[in-house]
Amino acid sequence: MRLLKHAVTSLLIALPLSAAAQEQDLSDLYAALREAGPEEAQQIERKIWEEWSRSGSPSMDLLLQRGQEALEAGDAGRAIEHFSALIDHAPGFAEGYNARATAYYAADRYGQSLDDLRMALALNPNHFGAMTGLALILTEIGRDQDALEVWRRVREMNPQQDGLDSRIEMLEREVEGRTL
Description:
There is one protein chain. The chain is 77% helix and 0% strand. It is an all-alpha fold. It is globular. It starts with a helix and ends with a helix. 34% of the residues are buried.
């Protein structure tokens, strides 16, 4: 949790008015996601992702789309270029950082991915997608205790996320050991 708190508090960036308004609109969806069953949770999660992907600018949304298409095509370098352009023009748009973090991860550039995940979480502390990416990287680099704390936070926000319970159980065994 220390790492997550650091990510949220160490980067003091003012939220643009549109981002703050978007978070207010999402509060009902966040609450519904915490209470939803598996099938309903998928629909709510999709709505949240749709909202997170709206920058408020058609040209910025196009850069996000082009970056996502490049990433899906396996061209992480091109995706990074699109996402970097997006961030240059919309530095307060959390999803731009989260998307570029995914591209950096795909390019095995974990340090840069972690930096972008920290920015995404500073801009949107409720971004369970960025938290998921953070937990995956922390696990991969052997920081199991930190990863476990982040996965537990993800579970608070999105308890129906696929594979979540098994990841937490595995890390609990690694970090806390087994009782005999």
